[in-house]
Amino acid sequence: MKISNPVVWFEIYVNDLQRAKKFYETVFKTELSELPTPEGNGSMEMQSFPMEMNGEGAAGALVKMEGFKAGGGGTIVYFRSDDCSDEESRIEKVGGKIFQSKQSLGEYGFMVLASDTEGNMFGIHSEK
Q1: CA distance 36 to 102
Q2: What is the residue-wise DSSP string for 6-71?
Q3: Are strands 121-126 and 9-13 parallel, antiparallel or unpaired?
Q4: Directed axis angle between helix 17-28 and helix 84-91, to 10°?
Q5: N or C: which end of the chain has fewer CB within 10 A?
Q6: Is the CB of residue 125 less than 8 Å from the CB of residue 110?
Q7: What pLDDT is attached to residue 2?
Q8: What is the mean pLDDT of the chain?
Q9: What are phi and psi of 106, to 5 degrees?
């Protein structure tokens, strides 16, 4: 079986789950939903991005868990967008910070780099 995109799940660790949920819902104009706590891990709380189990792209969630803190790790999740300047215009209004405004990637489109209310760096990619 050939897999074109091996990424199926991501987790963004947060310190304040409700604050982070509001941030991502506002910036991406979407609704996150509570996921059940995995068996045996009572300290974990999760809010899932919209997902289709067999759909396009990776699914993921905001996660608050004892022992895992938010902040500048080393992995950056990039979110798809029609035009990343739309999301960029909402980031600072809900407590995030722009690290790199919309910039051209030549034939590969455009991107924005920002940090959320928890200090996590993330990217937004668009074709225009």
Answers
A1: 36
A2: ---EEEEE-S-HHHHHHHHHHHHT---EEEPPPTT-TT-EEEEPP--TTSSS-EEEEEEBTTB--S
A3: unpaired
A4: 140
A5: N
A6: yes
A7: 62
A8: 88
A9: 65, -130
Q: What is the DSSP letter of 82?
A: S
Q: What separation in angstroms does the CA of 99 have from each of 15, 58, 87, 113?
A: 20, 24, 13, 5
Q: Over range 9-14, report the average pLDDT.
A: 90
DSSP secondary structure string, 22-35?
Answer: HHHHHHHT---EEE
User: Are 88 and 113 contacting, i.e. CB atoms less than 8 angstroms apart?
Assistant: no
How many other CB atoms are found less than 10 A from the CB of residue 1? Answer: 2
Distances from the Cα of 87 to the Cαs of 5, 43, 98, in angstroms? 24, 32, 11
Residue with tokens 């959320």: 116
Query: Cα angle at 48 between 30 and 116, to 5 degrees?
Result: 65
Question: For 107, which DSSP code?
Answer: G
